[in-house]
Amino acid sequence: MTIPKEKLLRAYRQMKTIREFEERAHAEIMNGQIPGFTHLYTGQEANAVGVCEHLDELDTIISTHRGHGHCIAKGADVIGMMKELFGSSEGLCKGKGGSMHVADIEKGILGANGIVAGGPPISVGSALAAKIRDNGRVAVSFSGDGSVNQGTCFEAMNLAVVLKVPAIFVIENNYYSEHTNISYAVGCDDLKARTEAFGFPVFMADGCDFFSVYEAAGKAIEHARAGNGPAGLFAEQGRFHGHFVGDPQYYRAEGELDDLRENSDCLKVFRGRVTTDGEVSHEELDAIDADVLALIDDAVAAAKAAPRPTAEQVVEDVYVNYGNA
After folding, report:
1. Dihedral of the CA atoms 77, 81, 87, 88 (nearest 10)?
2. For residues 201 and 203, what is the distance between their CA atoms, to the nearest angstrom?
3. What is the mean pLDDT of residues 79-93?
4. Helix %, strand %, coil % for the chain, to 5?
5. Cα–Cα dist 230/159, whole Å
């Protein structure tokens, strides 16, 4: 698999941006600057970027409660997203979506979703629209391992096969559905086989390795884009934070988080591979690191200075007004 250098640099920038966005969001939540529940994507960056590098703005994605990474990978404005988390009226959703419902329709981001497995049925609808319009687009739903036991996920997968729509079901197994390990929550040892039983191909990826995800996602998306119906992608990689910011994580084994950060960091794996192969230098990646850190600093400063919604804006953008349609 050959990936052009400019694409490698872009992929690293995207993963690094997600990492620093999440780590800074964590710090701002802990010091009381960002309100509400937030679920961080740190550690799983290769999944979002490995998939979204195959998509353009006309393809759609729908995310989960852990959605910042997917949105950034799909092209959401980082400063607009930070403003959204801070509750500013200048945020991507004017401060009304917040962390769990951030969206950007113009970028093909149909929204994050606070409901486990709430995304796959919506994604099938988007895929059906693409099929009817015959525009070559695909619709991707990101879900966690907890979604694969939800009826909505099963129904969406079955309907996608029946309608033969270009839907890609990306299942990110980070090993915990909230606080419950997958080994306890799932009665089947082979989730790939269980999913393939619906009648579409499923590809496996190492979520710690961008190249593994990129390759598997490419096969799934190519299958769907060619008019062959839906496809699935399972990627395994643990999250570096708890289910939500503030989660004490008593369900973790001793040393588990330290091991993840030391031995299963997709940024380290990426750096090691591209610099060893001589495709990219450490200096080039260091320059990206500096750019990203500056961007996140700017995003936080802008978010803290941005206006908050006024009382009059509370009732705006709640319902669609068809009066002038």
Report:
1. -10
2. 7
3. 96
4. 50, 10, 40
5. 10
Q: Which of 166, 178, 107, 118 is nearest to 143 (CA)?
A: 118
Q: Under CATH, which number does the domain 5-242+249-266+279-306 receive? A: 3.40.50.970
Nearest-angstrom CA–CA distance, 196 and 183: 20
> Domain-by-domain residue ranges, the chain?
5-242+249-266+279-306
pLDDT digits (tens, 9 = 90+) for 177-224: 888 888 777 888 788 999 999 999 999 999 999 999 999 999 999 999
Q: What does pLDDT average to over the chain?
A: 93
| CA-closest candidate to residue 29, choices 307, 306, 245, 293 | 245
Given a cut of 80, is residue 1 above it in pLDDT? no
Residue with tokens 């299958």: 223
pTM above 0.90, yes or no: yes
Beta strands 60-62 and 139-144: pairing type?
A: parallel
Among 27-31, 52-56, 243-247, 272-276, where is mean pLDDT lowest?
Answer: 243-247
CB 103 within 8 A of CB 111: yes
Pairing of strands 231-236, 167-173: parallel
List CB contacts of 243: < 8 A, sequence separation 6 or more: 39, 176, 178, 179
Q: How, if at all, do strands 167-173 and 139-144 pair?
A: parallel
Question: Is the confidence at residue 325, as pLDDT, over 60?
Answer: no
DSSP line for 46-96: HHHHHHHTT--TTSEEE--SS-HHHHHHTT--HHHHHHHHTT-TTSTTTTS
